[in-house]
Amino acid sequence: MSLFRFLPLLRRTGALWLSAALLAAPACQKATPDPATATPTAAATVLTGSTLIGEYSAATLASRAQGVPLVAALVKYPIKVYRLTYRTLTPAGQETTASGAVLVPVAPMALPVLSYQHGTLLPSSEGQAPSYYAQGSDVWSLVSLLASTGYVVSAPDYLGYGASEALPHPYEHAASLASTSADMLRAAREFCQQQGVQVNQKNFLLGYSEGGYATMALHKYLQEKFAPTLPVTASAPGAGAYHKTAFARYILQSTQPLSFLSTYVWVLRTYDQVYALNRPYSFYYQAPYAAQLQADPSSAVPDQQSQLFAASFRQAVLNDSDAPLNAALADNDIYDWKPAAPLALFHGTADDYVPFFNSQDAYDAMQKRGATQVELHPIQGGDHFSSATAYTLGAYAFISRF
Q1: I need a labelling partner for 400 at 20 to 30 A (CA). Which of 105, 179, 202, 273 fits?
Q2: What CA–CA distance (Å, rounded) separates 371 from 394?
Q3: pLDDT band at 66 (very low <50, low <70, confident <90, very high)
Q4: CA dist., res. 186 & res. 189, Å (int)
Q5: What is the pTM of this model?
Q6: What is the CATH number of domain 4-243+335-399?
Q7: Which ranges of 226-338 does DSSP label H, i.e. alpha helix?
Q8: What are the sequence ranges of the domains in the chain?
C-alpha cells in the first residue's frame, strides 16, 4: 500500500493540514527459531556497509511537491540518502544481510530518528523498496519531505527485498518484521555515530497497511527487548491487521466479495512455511485454485472466499480444531499488550481490505490492560485507500507533539 499515490489528494484536500502538522514537528509452539528471541544482543554491531545514493537540496525536495506550495514551503534542510546493509536474522534464526535507506538531514543540531515501515510490495515492485530510492516511491517523495523538516529516517526494505531479494518475504510475520526493522534502526544509529551525525534519543515509528502491522510489531518488540537502548518515543500505526485470529474468522465466514484474498493467500503461504506446517495447497484451497496457486502463487483468485478455500479448512479454523494453524495465527496477534509509550491507532471505518475491528480490538485490549497513552483515531467513512491521506496528516501531527 503506497502512500505516494495519495499525493494528488494532498494537493487538493490536505495541504493546509499537512502544513500545520509538519510545522509543529521537531526537526504457539513454533517449528522454527523465533528472531524475536534469537536476535543479536543490544551490544552487538549490525551495520555492515553504506553507500551514498545522493544529496538533495532543499529546492530539489521542494520541487517534488509541485502544486502544493504550502508543503514545498516546509522543506527546511537538504538531505543525504544512503543505502545501508546490516546483519539480521531470518524467521528460521539464520543470520543474513538485509538493507534499507537512511535519510539524513544536513542540520546543525541533534535530530530525532524516525523508523518508517513501508506497505505491501508485490515481488514485481522490488524496485520500490526504500534502498533503491526510486522516483515515485514513498521514501523518495513524502518521506523525504518529512526528513527535510528535521528527522533522520530509517526505512527498512524488509526481508525479501533489496540485499535479501533472494529470500521469500515473510509477509505479515510479526517477529521477523519487528526484528528486521529494529536491526535497521540500530544500523541507522550506528551509521550516524560513524559519520558524526548528531541524533538525540527520540525514536518515532510510522507505517500504514503492512507497514502499520510492522510498526505495531516493532513498537512491542523494542519495548520488550531494547527499552534501555532504543526507547520508543511515540508510534502511529495505520490500518494494520493486528488481530490475526479474528481476521481469519472474518474471512472464512464472509459472504460478501473480498478484494484482498490474493494477499491472504500470501499470508497463509508465509505461515505454512515459517511454522513448518508443510501442507499441500489442496489442504487450503479448492480446485482448480489449488493447482493454479501451486504453479504460480501470484495467480488470480476469486473474490468469494467460499469459492477459494476448501470447506474442511474453513470449518477447522471456524471450529478451532486446527491447533497448529491456530497457534500460528495467535503467534501473530499483536493487538493485546500494554504499550508504555504514546501510541495512536489510525483506521478507516469503512476499510474493507483490513477491517476497522483490528484497531478497535487493539485499542480496547490496551485500555483493558491499563494503557493510558493509547489513542484511537477512526477515519469516518474512509476505506483502506482513501484513508491513507488522513493517516499521513494525522500521524505527522501526532508525533509532532512529542
Answers
A1: 179
A2: 21
A3: confident
A4: 5
A5: 0.91
A6: 3.40.50.1820
A7: 244-252, 261-274, 281-284, 289-295, 305-308, 311-318, 323-331
A8: 4-243+335-399, 245-331
